[in-house]
Design brief:
This is Pyrin domain-containing protein. It holds the Pfam family PYRIN. InterPro entries: DAPIN, DEATH-like_dom_sf. The protein is an all-alpha fold. Helix content is 64%, strand content 0%.
Length: 104
């Protein structure tokens, strides 16, 4: 499965309020990942995924999504995402033991 679809499926699991919190974390910045508010305002889930991938590559977008989910205490969603990304061979050596260090 393509990383785009994996990340979209993950964001589809978030209700509207959770998606707003997810976007807020993206604008606040986590490690070296930060997206300006203007680029996320009124954006759909598809647009958010596309923005993350364009700015940070598929690998970086996967890492960023994991970090935000963990910040939101969405541990089940983070675990499921980690497994799907590992299966898609996105940085497989690190995703199996991903930590919040943001390093791969």
């Amino acid at each position: 499965m393509a990383v785009h679809q994996i990340l979209l499926d993950c964001l589809d699991e978030l209700v509207s309020e959770e998606l707003d919190i997810f976007k807020w974390h993206l604008t606040q910045g986590i490690h070296d990942f930060k997206i300006p508010k203007s680029q996320l305002e009124k954006k759909s889930r598809c647009d958010i995924v596309e923005c993350m991938i364009q700015r940070y590559s598929p690998d970086g977008a996967g890492k960023l999504t994991l970090l935000v989910l963990e910040k939101m205490n969405q541990m089940n969603n983070a675990k499921e995402l980690r497994e799907k990304l590992a299966a898609a061979l996105l940085c497989p050596q690190a995703l199996s033991s991903w930590t919040s260090t943001g390093q791969c």
